[in-house]
Amino acid sequence: MRFLQVPFLSIKIVFLKTFKQPLHYIVLLILAGEAVFILPFVLARVFRATVLEVFTITNTEIGYCFSIYGLVALASYLLGGPLADKFPPRKLMGTALLLTAAGGLVYANQPSFTTLTFLYGFWGFTTIFLFWAAMIKATRVWGGSANQGKAFGFLDGGRGLVGALFGLLGVAVFAWFVPDNTVTLNTFQQREAFTMVVYISSALVAFIGILVLFFLKSNVSEEKVLKEKITKANIKSVLKLPSVWLLMIIILCAYTGYKITDIFSLYAREVLGYSEVAAAKTGTFLLFIRPVVGVTIGFLADRARPSIYLLAGFLFSILGAVLFASGILEPGTHTMFFLTIIITAIGVYAARVLYFAVLKEGKIPLTLTGTAVGIISFIGYTPDIYAGPVIGYFLDNFETVQGHYYVFWILGMFSIVGLIASFLFLLISKKND
User: Fold this and answer.
1) How far, in Å, are 175, 187, 188, 193 from residue 54 at the CA level?
2) Among candidates 425, 159, 418, 238, which has minimal Cα distance to 313?
3) What's 86's domain CATH number?
4) Model confidence over 199-246: pLDDT tens digits?
5) Does residue 8 lie within any of the structural domains?
6) Which residues have CB under 8 Å from 108's CB, separation 6+?
7) How far apart are alpha carbons 178 and 277 in whole angstroms?
């Protein structure tokens, strides 16, 4: 096993020199950052068609579940932000993971639509109020003053890899119940397979939560990054920063694009005629693009202004949206389909990597990170409320192909607005240097 020790030791040295933090801190932060969203979002993204059939719901109804999540999250962003400036990240994040995993026990038993909406509301509390701002703050601590791009790049890229591995595991478990990828499963087979996927995912999320609770400790003393008291003056000082208002718009546009990636596997199933397993593999393929984009953009962003790559991300999103909505993708155009996925994913994930990596460029103090993230996220993550129902409306009320076209035109419009906001952010950051 000695030949494995040398590469591992080299990786450890590089990380320690770059981030000045223990390797286990970085690994746990990445694992936790995606694990908390596996049950509410990743499984629904990878197994979209299956989820609709197992729970006997429509695209609009699953959109309502996401909206309930978003409504709870809306208040949680504001209240949870200051909380992250008061308590250590490991305690908040570890508790959030354990509670989220507990919700998986309900999810695994195919609850009614009403119960499902309450479950998503519960997840809105656990994943946002307790977790979100704490994770962003822990990442800023991890990156230090010189490596914010790399920190958020590795975080989002690593989260993408974790999500992809969870998706791959889910597909493998699901495929175990399918004798032939071309076979359409009956309702009992679908439920049995998906239940096993949810139970395994919940167990892994709980295990990561325990590790985070006890071992997510950095080299920076907790006192240095915690405010002794959250005051109105702190909130007012954050609201006076122009970068905060522009980041609200940037995140809103970028996150809308990210939510639209949920339908890629459904597009493969409904428009291109893929089997359930093949469609799920398409969703997993998308997840594997994320770590590559995250790490690459993270390194590039620390060599220049991160906001420049925000601009590039929105340009790629516009191009991908036009290709999807143009009608050139038809059954049999597999290569073009995957190329378009790659282009769109580069744009969406690049913007997602960087919209918190620019906090330093926007002159937002480290000790007010939680408060700033809470305020920015209050507006920036409103797509959690409207994106699901809007996407569901177009998919359920228009002819299948046309409905998908409309959704991707929405992606194009939001990407244009994000491009303009990113350009203004760049101008302001240059002016403040």
Assistant:
1) 16, 7, 9, 10
2) 418
3) 1.20.1250.20
4) 999 999 999 999 998 888 765 544 444 444 455 666 676 677 777 888
5) no
6) 195, 198, 199, 202
7) 9
